Amino acid sequence: LWSAKGRRVGCPGPRPDLLPGRSAVGVPGRDGNGKVLRRGRYVIRLVAEPPAGDVGAQPTVRDVPFRLLPR
Fold first, then answer.
1. For the segment 10-57, what is each residue's pLDDT rounded down to a tens digit?
2. pTM beyond 0.85
């Protein structure tokens, strides 16, 4: 998880063994240390690692911007 300015905020945690296709990811509104995130713009970086034994395959990386709004 990154701030819009490029500062690393934390890591929401790995999600192993997801099948190809669409997946939903929930952001709990807290950083990697459990502190509440301020409202504003963030980017979550999704990395899909190729299966073991897939020689020469590169991970797929996507940055997804989002915004936390006040309640």
1. 776 666 666 667 777 777 788 778 888 888 898 888 888 888 888 889
2. no
CA-derived radius of gyration, the chain: 14
Rounded to an integer, what distance in angstroms lies between the CA atom of residue 19 and that of residue 14?
14
41 contacts 67 by C-beta, under 8 angstroms = yes
Residue found under tokens 């300015």:
5
Which backbone phi and psi does 41 adopt, to 5 degrees? -95, 140
CB-based contact 3:31 (threshold 8 Å): no
Residue 66's nearest CA partner among 50, 36, 51, 44 is 44
* Separation of alpha carbons 6 and 56, rounded Å: 29
